[in-house]
Amino acid sequence: MRLAQALRAVLAAFFGVRRGRAAGADRALKGWEVVVAALLVALLAAVLLWGLVRGIVAVAGG
């Protein structure tokens, strides 16, 4: 469950929104948990972007 909490913290930081109580709870996370969550989010974003570009190129006839 701590990975889910780390993912929420990373996504909230990405979008720039986090309530005070939730931000306080994030202090209990270990650094490596936040790093792993950030790497997972970055990997997911890269894969989604790659798929989007491939789809657009395929539709455009490239």
TrEMBL record:
Q: Does the keyword Transmembrane helix apply?
A: yes
Q: Which UniProt keywords apply?
A: Membrane, Transmembrane, Transmembrane helix
This protein's source sits in the domain of life called Bacteria
Which InterPro entries does the UniProt record give?
DUF2970
Any transmembrane segments, and where?
A: 32-53
* Name of this chain's protein: DUF2970 domain-containing protein
